[in-house]
Specification:
It contains 7 helices and 12 strands. By secondary structure, it is of the alpha/beta class. A 7-stranded mixed beta sheet has the order 4-5-6-7-8-10-9. A 5-stranded mixed beta sheet has the order 3-2-1-11-12, with helices on one face. Helix 5 runs parallel beside helix 6. The longest helix has 23 residues. It is globular, with a radius of gyration of 24 Å. The protein starts with 14 loop residues before the first helix and ends with a helix.
């Protein structure tokens, strides 16, 4: 019998060639990562739509307009007016509206969503309603909208499992995060013995800022962008010898943000709601060294991020300005 023909095994690659191929693959991967980090993009910020009435038309129009734009994501400041009821029915109605967005949409809570809520006996229902909002609006690890943005919530830490509203995500080489800082003096109550919510949230927010900046430092991020309702960088103004002034509810968080910014190698941008119902439309970012302050009022504002631009951030025209320019 003839011996069956032996099949020749493929020659083994020389170790030097295998090393070169590995290096080429690593170089290709690193180039791809570098390209991703230098890609420009834009995001939208919807101002608090419920400042003087309970009409949700402003929010609905802002969602429609941002859906028509090419945006990486959208952040909405607040879900209701202070004059509206704090009912489950209204919360569910707004949740349905936010869920209809095409862009990934992240909610940044405002004071009017929960701080002023009252019971039928006219007692504060703020904490109970805040917990209800948390259950309804922050039940999973994704944004609202068709384009789901994966989020890392502070609640992943067992010690801070309640603080689901504080979320972090990354686009390109920028770290974004929401932090619960209500505009009404950070919900600090002047009456003694009524600040357990404020004190507990202070501890949570300190830890949250530490995690955000640790992550940004480790990845050598170009910037950290924080979204909140109140302006933590604004100091209280009062007259000399006015002893009736309440404690500044933002004093500690302002010091923490400034300290983190001073040690961070990139830019830090704080985007917050308006100081009042008649606040003018935002036209610029106010910088102090690497710490920027941006107040968003009107309808919504487009912010562009370009790593090739030394400023990194550029503001587009707000929706209200664009309408005026077309008249």
């Amino acid at each position: 019998m003839k011996a069956a023909p032996q099949r020749n095994s493929p020659p083994l690659l020389p170790s030097r060639l295998m090393l070169l191929l590995s290096l080429a693959a690593a170089l290709t991967m690193n180039c791809g990562m570098a390209l991703a980090d230098t890609t420009s993009f834009s995001f939208g910020v919807i101002a608090h739509a419920f400042r003087s009435d309970s009409d949700e038309t402003t929010l609905r129009n802002a969602i429609t307009e941002t859906d028509a734009d090419n945006l990486a994501f959208v952040v909405a400041n607040g879900i209701k007016a202070g004059s509206e009821p704090c009912s489950d029915q209204l919360y569910s109605q707004r949740k349905t509206l936010l869920s209809s967005a095409k862009n990934g949409l992240i909610v940044s809570l405002s004071a009017s969503d929960w701080v002023a809520c009252r019971t039928a006996a006219d007692r504060s229902a703020a904490i109970e309603r805040l917990n209800r909002v948390r259950d309804l609006f922050f039940s999973d690890e994704f944004s609202f909208g068709d384009s789901k943005i994966p989020l890392i919530r502070q609640s992943t830490s067992p010690k801070f499992h309640s603080y689901v509203e504080n979320a972090r995500w990354e686009i390109g080489n920028v770290v974004f995060a929401t932090i619960n800082l209500p505009a009404s003096n950070n919900h600090y109550m002047a009456e003694g013995g009524r600040n357990s919510e404020f004190e507990d949230r202070q501890i949570a927010n300190r830890e949250w800022l530490q995690r955000i900046f640790l992550n940004a430092t480790q990845k050598k991020a170009d910037a950290v962008v924080l979204f909140c309702d109140g302006d933590p960088l604004a100091t209280q103004r009062h007259r000399v010898f006015d002893f009736n002034v309440k404690r500044d509810g933002f004093a500690e968080i302002r010091q923490r943000i400034s300290a983190h910014a001073s040690q961070f190698g990139g830019k830090v941008l704080i985007i917050h709601g308006p100081h009042g119902a008649d606040a003018p439309n935002s036209t610029t970012i106010v910088w102090q060294r690497n710490l920027g302050d941006l107040e968003v009022s009107g309808s919504w504002l487009k912010v562009s991020v370009d790593p090739a631009n030394p400023k990194l951030f550029d503001l587009g025209k707000s929706a209200d300005q664009a309408k005026l320019s077309r008249r």
